[in-house]
């Protein structure tokens, strides 16, 4: 089966690796040097909707898989489907759950899905009064997509106010920050939960934990994620049952009821409190990065058929079984604010050989390969 994979990051590299193992003939757009070692690539930007459709038609693509959030929020999956290309990825209307934190909060309120109390602020003149409604410094979130940098977990009211004013008055994130969500800070353990869905039924990937601080010892600034492992032990059977009943099922039902069924992977960022009660921190409309790298490496069952079934509205409720796996990220100097580009990691072949030896006692041998 020929698959068009849109994107070119580490997440898409892991997806390409998995799909090729499942027998897919993958074309990645734009892909990356690493993906080019596994699959064909086409130098088309994910924003190039017309070119992507042309490529998919020319290559008789049977499934398109959209990796990053921006093209989904911008409607790429709608355009591909309208062109008759079976697509794994939500419509722009469904992807708004990630594209607007205000939309996500309002959605959760409408459908009684557990999440932290929040205030939406559009006018800087309303900020002080909104801040006073919190007893602890709130988390400040730019409403729109901000490349993973739009959230400030403030440790004082002054810091929260500064972060909100940077968005509202100084255009820190441009249009994405013209309104901000102030949210009660939750405590507990975070879990990234992934439901591959056709809009009604869903198949869960191994729940993961990702680690966001740049430095060793959980120090330094927040990043998009420096490492992840799956499964996460905190997500035991009780937590699982609660999360599915109070969050995943009502989210999918709510989206269907609002005429925006979600076809793709619904990524729910959860906070599990000390009593094992899950609340939603955020929704994403795509696979996680770097969670995918761990999940695809550990996955024991094929993924391709599940994505095809979801795209065709024919998924069975399922759980995708995985062996434990972990991924560790390395960052270029200056990351996350001003990362250098083009640095070379020498002796990579030796490192991957070493990882093979290091990992093999824990991971099932047929899945191992030096390509990751
Ligand atoms: P997001 O960009 O929404 O993924 O948020 C980035 C990170 O900020 C999350 O992964 C959490 O670690 C943290 N965060 C977001 N919202 C909250 C909250 N209400 N309470 C505590 N931490 C939060
Ligand atoms: N690792 C978190 C994310 O992909 O948003």
Protein described:
The chain is an alpha/beta fold. It is globular and about 55 Å long. The C terminus is likely disordered. It binds adenosine monophosphate (AMP) and glycine.
- Assign the CATH superfamily of the largest domain: ATP-grasp fold, B domain
Work out the radius of gyration: 20 Å
In one word, what is the shape? globular
Strand content: 15-25%
The overall strand count is 17
Distance between the termini: 22 Å
Largest sheet, spatial ordering of strands: 3-2-1-4-5
User: CATH first level of the largest domain: which class?
Assistant: Alpha Beta
H-E string? EHEHEHEHHEHHEHEEHEEEEEHEEHHEEH
Q: What class do helices, strands and sheet pairing give?
A: alpha/beta
Q: Give average pLDDT, whole number.
A: 92
CATH architecture of the largest domain: 2-Layer Sandwich
Main pleated sheet: 5 strands, parallel
The unique ligands bound to this protein are: adenosine monophosphate, glycine
Low-confidence stretches: 356-372
How many structural domains are formed by the residues? Answer: 4
Approximately how much helix is present in the residues?
A: 25-40%
Stated plainly, the CATH topology of the largest domain is called D-amino Acid Aminotransferase, Chain A, domain 1
Count up the helices: 13
């Amino acid at each position: 089966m020929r698959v068009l994979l849109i994107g070119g990051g580490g997440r898409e590299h892991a997806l390409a690796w998995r799909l090729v193992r499942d027998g897919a003939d993958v074309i990645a757009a734009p892909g990356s040097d690493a993906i080019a070692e596994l699959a064909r690539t086409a130098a088309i930007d994910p924003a190039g909707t017309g070119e992507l459709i042309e490529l998919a038609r020319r290559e008789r693509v049977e499934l398109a898989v959209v990796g990053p959030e921006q093209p989904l929020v911008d409607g790429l999956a709608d355009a591909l489907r309208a062109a008759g290309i079976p697509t794994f990825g939500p419509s722009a209307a469904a992807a708004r759950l990630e594209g607007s934190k205000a939309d996500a909060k309002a959605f959760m309120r409408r459908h009684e899905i557990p999440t932290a109390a929040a205030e939406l602020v559009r006018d800087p003149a309303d900020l002080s009064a909104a801040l006073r409604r919190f007893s602890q410094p709130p988390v400040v979130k730019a409403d729109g997509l901000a490349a993973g940098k739009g959230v400030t977990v403030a440790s004082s009211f002054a810091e929260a106010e500064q972060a909100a004013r940077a968005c509202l008055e100084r255009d820190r994130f441009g249009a994405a920050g013209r309104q901000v969500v102030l949210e009660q800070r939750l405590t507990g353990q975070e879990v990234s939960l992934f439901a591959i869905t056709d809009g009604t039924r869903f198949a869960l990937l191994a729940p993961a934990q990702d680690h966001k601080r740049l430095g060793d010892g959980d120090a330094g600034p927040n990043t998009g994620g420096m490492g992840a492992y799956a499964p996460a032990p905190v997500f035991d059977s009780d937590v699982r049952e609660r999360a599915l009943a109070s969050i995943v099922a009502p989210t999918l039902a709510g989206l269907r009821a609002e005429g925006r069924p979600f076809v793709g992977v619904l990524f729910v960022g959860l906070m599990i409190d000390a009593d094992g009660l899950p609340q939603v921190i955020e929704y994403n409309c795509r696979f996680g990065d770097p969670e995918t790298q761990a999940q695809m490496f550990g996955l024991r069952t094929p993924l391709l058929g599940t994505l095809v079934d979801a795209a065709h509205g024919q998924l069975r409720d399922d759980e995708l079984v995985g062996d434990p796996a972990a991924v560790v990220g390395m960052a270029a100097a200056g990351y996350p604010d001003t990362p250098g580009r083009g640095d070379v990691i020498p002796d990579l072949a030796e490192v991957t050989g070493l990882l093979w030896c290091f990992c093999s006692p824990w991971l099932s041998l047929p899945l191992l390969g030096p390509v990751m």
